[in-house]
Each structure stands twice: as structure tokens, then as C-alpha cells.
Amino acid sequence: MTIPQTMKALVLHELGKPMTVEDVPVPKCGDNQVLVKIEASGVCHTDEFFSRAGYPGIKFPAVLGHEGAGTIAQIGAAVTGWKIGDRVSVPMYGGGCGKCYYCENDMLLQCADHIMHAGNAWGTYAEYIATNPKTIVAIPDNVSYEHAGPCGCAGVTVMGALRRSNAPKGSWVAYSGAGGLGLMGVQIAKAEGYKVLAIDVDDAKLEEAKHVGADAVLNAKTAGAEFIPKVLTITEGGLMANFIVTTAASAVENTIPAMKAGGSVIIIGIIEKPTTIPIVLLMVKDLKIFGSALGTVEDAKKVVKYVADGKVHPTTSPCKLSEVNHVFEELEKGTIVGRKVVTNLTQ
């Protein structure tokens, strides 16, 4: 496969400023890397956040994007197990030391040497990316690049959080937020054997949640003062896990009274505003609140298999590289149903 000297990339030169499509050098493929030709890249709210707030170790010019999918175009001299032409998902996590406390205890992004695409390393809003062959995941032929892209962040993140929740199979869990993460979460939780409630304030998103398999949906805004009683009725006494996949701080406080004893509230969405928590309920009901960032390579493999087996159908719509700035604006407004995916990396 012929590798060009330059490629198109969406470049961020300064925090808070629009990104621009530019011609930049194709990254060199190191001995321990693979060079992947990107065919699709999901547009995640985390990218929008990084474009404003940055990430520790970010260097400018920067290239965001961390839900990539494409084809291996080049293989480093020390790499085994992959071949040119293999179809792969390129997730957000690009590797770590593999030996520290955090790497050994499922907290990969806490490793001092971790690599995060779109954070401290160039991401997938580009035609090519040089990455770690140990973190990419094979894509079966029956999974499109457009559907494979979101598996690398949205999919692996909700899979990792569901695993960490330790909620008993068959119990009720909720996704507070029916956006790109929430819709993936609904389907993965169903595939894992849970009963699922989707919560949002947008009826269009809730309709899509029903379409992809949610057992019940609830509009928190229209429910008003009846929100908690409705959740308790729907879930036959309460939730064993509530995954906060929205940026609304109120979602944390509002659902704690609807938790079953021993349940967990897991923060996945980037919430920038403070909230209040009924602390006494945490003690009385033995509740847990914790954050969950990403998941493991094995989590990512499981998600891709669910897509290949038809158990998960990512809700996506295509866009161009030059449209990502506008998509960021729509993400902030909360108007996108599902996941926008860049499928045209040249315009």
C-alpha cells in the first residue's frame, strides 16, 4: 500500500478556537506501531470539551478525534499479529506502562505514561494515525467503519462502566442521557441481560432509545415532581445502577432517591457544574458513587462482537471533516440524536 507524504487533518491551534482542515505530514510508523488509514471517526462530546479545556500534555498544533476505524496501511518492524489491510477500531486509549498500580487495576488513564488519542497524542480526525497495535481491535467484515468508530469510546466506555457497576444480571439499570453514549449503553446492557430505563428531556432521543431496545423511557422534564415515584414504579422498587451519561449535574442528585439499596451511581458524562447530593441516603442505603473512564481492550472486543452479532446497532449519521466544528455546537445544544461520524476525511 502506497503511503502519501501528506494527509488531510482537522487541526486545533488554540483552545477555544475553531479547527481547520489542513494538509499535514503523514505520521511516521515506529517499529512498535501500526499506521492506520482512517475511514471513519465518531464525534464525541469529549472532543468538544478538550477543544475548550485541553488535556494534560496536549501539544499544539493538535488533532482531536478518538473513535477511529480504518485499515492498517503499514506495520512497524517489531510488530506481529497484524497484517496490512486488516480492518481495525482505533480506540481512545493508546497504551500505558502496563506495570503500575493503575494499569494493573483497571484505571488505565491514571497511568503517568498513558497515551490518549485526542488528548496527549494526535487523534483520528485525520486520514492516518500511528498507534499501538496492542490497543486496536479487529473489525469483522460485516461491521461498517461508521458503526465500528463509536465502539472505540462510546462502546468501550459504557461496557467498562457496566462491568464495574457489579449490578446483578436481570436487575434494572438506567442511562440518564439518551445521546451517543446512552443509546450504546441501552443496547449493551440489554445484550448483557439487564432491564433498562432510558431517561432524558428530549422525546426524540427517548423514541430512539425505545427503538434500540430500552424496556422503558422517561422524560425527566415532563415527569416533574412525579419523577422519583415514576422511576420507582417502572423499576419495581428502584435501580441497581444509574449511568450518568449526560452533562447535566442535576441528573446525579435527582436519581439518588430512586436507587435500590446497594446500588451504584456511575459518572461517565463530563459534568462541569456542581451539584448537591443527599449524603444521608448514601449511608442509609449503602450506595456508591464513582467515576468510570473508558474500559479495557477486552471490553472493546466484546462491544465489536455485539455489533457483529447484531445485538448492538449504533445510531449514527455521517458528516465531513470540515463539519466537525458545527457538530461540536450541536453537541453543546444537545440536538444530535445518536452519534455523528466523520466518513469523509478529505473535506
Automatic annotation (TrEMBL):
SUPFAM superfamilies, alphabetized: GroES-like, NAD(P)-binding Rossmann-fold domains
Domain Enoyl reductase (ER) intervals: 5-342
Keywords: Metal-binding, NAD, Oxidoreductase, Zinc
Residue stretches in coiled coil: none
Listed Gene3D superfamilies: Medium-chain alcohol dehydrogenases, catalytic domain, NAD(P)-binding Rossmann-like Domain
Highest taxon of source: Eukaryota
Molecular functions (GO terms): alcohol dehydrogenase (NAD+) activity; zinc ion binding
Listed GO CC annotations: cytoplasm
Cofactor(s) required, per the database record: Zn(2+)
Family stated for the protein in its record: Belongs to the zinc-containing alcohol dehydrogenase family.
Identification of the protein by name: Alcohol dehydrogenase GroES domain-containing protein
Organism per entry: Gonapodya prolifera (strain JEL478)
